[in-house]
Amino acid sequence: MLRLVRGQELAAGQIGTHFPITQQAVSQHLQVLHRAGLVAERREGTRRLYLLRPDALGPVRSLLDDLWPDALDRLKRIVEEDKRNR
Amino acid sequence: MTPHLQVTKTIGASPEEVFPYLVQPDLLLRWIGTWVDIDPRPGGIFAVDMGETQVRGSYIAVEPPHRVVFTWGIPGNQQMPAGSSTVEIVLRPENEGTVVELTHRDLPVERHSDHEKGWTNLLGGLASVLQD
Fold first, then answer.
1. ipTM for the complex?
2. % pLDDT > 90, chain B
3. Where are the domains of chain A?
């Protein structure tokens, strides 16, 4: 869930489509994350939008844990594509 | 002991073909960051922005086509100030390809234990769902 709202602001409803739990449960999770200071919450009309706080204390490590595997996947894809296209 | 993180990936190209993607700004930008400014020689700057996150460090070693080492940090971040951790990327030929071994050393110690405890308690058994 934190990964979903890393760098992009999403509405609770959009986040919910990624999880096999009820929308109410998703909203409860998001409230917990908000109270823990990990995500920022913003209201827009009737929607609540969530974004991972880049300055949150905890996620520095979890961002890094994702960063390198994702980055090396991209490196592999790009190098191999370029090689094919040469 | 400070934690470190290691990621390995096999790429279907030789180390000579992969290495430029580690040291040429235009090629580096294609797989990491949204803006880069690098001077790939020992002591040279390593600056990459990832969205709003600014990563800053400097090169320690540049050894084509097998090894690059640079420091890594986020200015103003107390856990991980600029240059506080070190990234080593080693390219090893294997069959027709290259094994990329990336090691990120001297990472900040995991969250303050109090914070971590609070976080674990708050989430309870929901952790696995949240991490998906």
1. 0.79
2. 54
3. 10-85
Say if B108 is an interface residue toward chain A (CB within 8 Å).
yes
Using an 8 Å CB-CB cutoff, list chain B residues near A67. 50
Domain spanning B5-131: which superfamily?
A: START domain (3.30.530.20)
Per-residue pLDDT of A14-66, as tens digits, reads 888 888 888 888 888 888 888 877 788 899 888 899 888 766 645 456 666 67
CATH of domain A10-85: 1.10.10.10
pTM over 0.80: no
What size, in residues, is chain A? 86
Q: What is the pLDDT of residues B34-81, one digit of tens each?
A: 899 999 999 999 999 887 778 899 999 999 999 999 999 888 877 778
- H/E/C letters for each residue in chain B? CCCCEEEEEEECCCHHHHCHHHHCHHHHCCCCCCEEEECCCCCCEEEEEECCEEEEEEEEEEECCCEEEEEEECCCCCCCCCCCEEEEEEEEEECCEEEEEEEEECCCCCCCHHHHHHHHHHHHHHHHHHHC
Please state, rounded to an integer, the average pLDDT across all residues of chain B.
Answer: 81
Which of A17, A34, A74, A79 to probe by mutation at the B interface, max B CB count within 10 Å?
A79
According to DSSP, residue A36 is labeled T
Nearest to A69 among B7, B31, B122 (CB): B7
Residue type, B60: I
